Amino acid sequence: MKHALALLCLCASLSLHSQQHALTDADLALLKGVSDAAISPDGAMVACTRTTTDYAKNTVSSEVVIVNATTGQALHAFPGSQPQWAPNGRSLAFRGRAPDQDHEGLWVYDTSAAGPRFLTAIETVDTWLGAGALRNFAWSPDSATIAFAGADPPLPPPDTDVREITRLIYKTRTGFSNGRHTHIWLVPAAGGAPKILTPGLTDEHSLAWSPDGRRVVFIGNHSKDPESNYNNHVFAAEVPSGVVTQLTRTKGTEFRPQYSPDGNWIAFLGWSRELNTRDSPAEDTQLWIMPALGGVPRKLSASLDRRISDFAFAASSRAIYCLAGDHGAAEIFRISTDRGTVENITSGNITVRSFSLDAKNLRLAWAQTDTTHAPEVFISAGDGRSPRLLTRENDAFARNAAAQNSDAFTFDSFDGLRVQGWVMKPLGAQASRKYPTVLYVHGGPHGMFGYAYNEQMQLLAAQGYGVVYINPRGSNGYGQNFSDGTAMSWGGGDYKDLMAGLDYAIAHNPWIDAEHLGVVGGSYGGFMTNWIVTQTRRFKAAVSIAGLSNLVSFYGTSLYPDLMEAEFHGVPWDNWDMLWQWSPLSHIKDVTTPLLLLHGEIDNDVPITQAEEMYMPLRKLGVPVELVRYPGEGHGFRQPRHVLDSHQRISDWFAKYLRP
Fold first, then answer.
1. For a 10 Å CB count at each end of the chain, is N or C smaller?
2. Contact by Cβ (8 Å): 582, 576
3. Cβ 404 vs Cβ 21: under 8 Å
4. Which of 28, 46, 3 is nearest to 391 (CA)?
5. 512 membership: H or E segment, kind and range
6. Is 124 within the bounds of a domain?
7. Which residue from 374, 414, 371 is spatially nearest to 393, judged by alpha carbons?
8. Residue 152 in domain
9. How many domains in the chain?
10. Average pLDDT over the chain, rounded to whole?
11. Domain limits for position 592
């Protein structure tokens, strides 16, 4: 499988090189996002989401594209995203803008019709339900009804602009909570008014139907104070009565339940630890299974020991396909439901982002990317054999912009821990020259770098920089013990891993100019960038994007204070000194490296005050520092003009301070 996938990528690119040039920002308009690969029940068609960025108009738009599963020929395209086939295969539902353009909504395309029809508006709120929550929708087994997660109707406007805070989670990712909750609703697929299935004062989401259509299973937190914990459980609501039964009572947290096709089991993703966080948990999400009417869950993925992000039952109910990261790749595995034995369905230096199976598991479709190829849809037999490229959405981009490959390496860190990294040469590098090189740090801290197209790294390589990127302890994809590597110590072993990996890369790549090194990272990668410049003077320039600087103030201002509780094993007021010890701000007097701070002004994940706290003392100390504020941006830049601006500022900063 590995060699077949590599050959597919090679054949697709051999004819392109003569026309290519070094990647520039101008080429990014040709780059398409491809995701949500959904194969029809009969395996004849595949629907996916195609995302296009118009930098001139500062807009991002998505389309649902339906292609022939044999030829790849595009059959239909509609504005929208998240396509999902009805079980009978005669209709496709997807999300899109309602006709009034003020709401999101559900649309249905009937294969016998000329175009899609609008079904219902969906009220949405930005209440933070956690990284594992899905505001999804699902067809009933008879294809007659669609269940969806939607918010309460709007509340009357307040009669004052004074904001009284009494809740623990009172922020959204970019604003403030308005008190509305998300519930499960039912709407006839033929049309009609939606009816609420789970009213109340709690949030319900991440839903799925039972095979007999009598129940909808979902995730909720019905504890007395749900904002003080993240102890989500699996519930089932009877249709149409709405009678709700709680099916799990674990100490941990559950996500994304699904019934087996035979109706005997419910599988879900989950944690077993009582203390966890709504964002970037150290605990790897595992696959669990239990009887459909409830009972003691059994961990099915124990022998895999990897963080699982998505799954689907096999048609036989005797196995579950799942998606998990492994040593920088993201692959599809199949786990038997009786013994938990694991087999690879895909393999190789690739990143799979979504997948689906036809009704008989004869065909498997998925979205895939690798280091030098933007995402496309692939298709294979249900067991992964005979994979082939199905879509070519990014052919025009590949014809224009050359991509640089990277070489993986492993090294023994300071304490003997085996760590993986990659090194990317500058595009067109000459063996006799040395090149300035940038250390790129991922977010999380439990993210994972690997075999996926990264436009910022490719831009750096195109501009004549080498790039080194490493998965230090704390990264996922290497097992639970490795994921726990940052516990009680942000900037300890993880920082040493990065420095040891950089030293290894320099020793084994004579083209790296060790006297001209830069560092860049976002979120936790921004924290690590801030930390690095307080610990060493080996870097000539640094860029921190949405980075943390003060773990003490972060606890009180972030949308998810439970991140500090989970990472440092308890409430911080029992040990404020530990949070301050691992805060870059506590070592600010040691900084000499020029630092560029890029931050969204309405970022509630990592508030902009974290950048301000770093900027002010450095400015007073006379260290070259700039703070760039992006209006209307949260955690990660969404507006195309701001994305381009950040690319240009990073390029200018490194050109000013890093080049010999």
1. C
2. no
3. no
4. 46
5. strand 512-522
6. no
7. 374
8. no
9. 1
10. 95
11. 404-657
